[in-house]
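User: I would dearly like some help making sense of a protein record. I have put the entry right below:
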Amino acid sequence: MPETITTDPADAQTAVPTSTSTGIGLWTTVSTPDGPFTVVADEDAVVLASGWTDAPEYLVALVNRGLRPVGLLSPAEFRRTATLVAVTDAVAAYYAGEFDAPAAITVRQRGGPFIERSWAALRNVPAGAPVTYSQLAERAGEPAAIRAAASSCARNAAALFVPCHRVQRRDGALGGYRYGLPIKRALIDREAPPADK
């Protein structure tokens, strides 16, 4: 069974094994120009899943079974109301033009070794400089694993914090996106350098 990987925002290249937790999950939804954005995190505010939906149950289903919370507390049920403030502040900062803000948030996902290396590599793809699936495979250490790189994007549960929207096809086409191509296009356009807009 693969280890649980926590991507440390101080060095997104490094994946650190940690213990598995299936405790209570916390969730919150914030409004964004692209629609409601929900985050599911563990009790330490480590992001387990996120995306443009107002249904935390949908996101919980994306979390690896070994990490999946056994229950969810809504914002009204938190005892520590500031628990997810850093997470929601990072989302707000992203939409205010600080595109690297989500990279400062710790994310925990579980997959096979290549998938986890791909997720770590994605956290190092800079805003405004999308890469191809081939380039993602190279960044993850296996240049021939192009389909596996695409699979890592499809299996990514932590949208925005692990920016799989920054990967596109070699011909410049967007490829797929769990939350729809209009949102992927909006994210890429928002991150484009001013001369490219």
Summary: The radius of gyration is 16 Å. The chain has a mean pLDDT of 88.
